Amino acid sequence: MSTPQTLVLQAPTLDQARITELAALSGASDSHSVAANVVRLDGVDPARRELVLARAERLSVDANYVDSARRFADFGLLVSDMDSTLITIECIDEIADMQGLKPQVAAITERSMRGELDFTESLKARVALLAGLPEAALASVYDERLQLMAGARELLTACREHSVKFMLVSGGFTYFTERLKAELNLDYCHANQLEIVDGKLTGRVIGDIVDGAAKRRLLIAQREALGLRAEQVIAMGDGANDLLMLAEAGVGVATHAKPVVRAQASYTLNHVGLDGIRHLFL
Fold it and tell me: Is 93 a known active-site residue?
């Protein structure tokens, strides 16, 4: 017997006309509003899923099919990417801006996140361009440019309220993950360490690179340490180096993601903030 599915609709503003159209298209038998911009449709026809998702995207509505009985408190771990996921910027691009190299580095970052370049090699190439930059530039990026993604604080609050551990796993740098961990009271974090000598970046990374395979391994290790099953883990990310991690989680969410990630993820949020993850589940 198949598990009953609920269609969750979310948008920055969700008007009745779009709700009515998608409810009819999905074959829903019942609907109820969870918040001003969140509606749950029950009794939906699974056979209409692809048609509904395509139409919802054209209507600028985030539509996700979820198990009707699943609660946010059923999860025990949420694993998140950092750059362009938990925060709005790509830290390495902003660091490069201090060197007057943002266009060059940002172009490599974009291709890497789209899955067009090997992540490890592209990271090494980008970091090499930062050689000689004062360490103080990192502080400037954190203090002046780094902002949390919309809905991030609400999602973190929900995690604390429901005892869901939060792990930040980044292909970025420990300089930023460690500060976010302290500021936001995160449970765990992993990232790459920039080599700094005499107060300046050397253009090298210390130790193994946190790439897509490493993100997956770290998720599995933390899941097992907590004694959780795969279905008790949520992962969220936006780039190609997040795909293995998203596939390993019971719920893998592509958040404002590159096309290659949206195409493969089971859940997507393109229009609302990270609190949309909390709203997927009762």
Answer: no
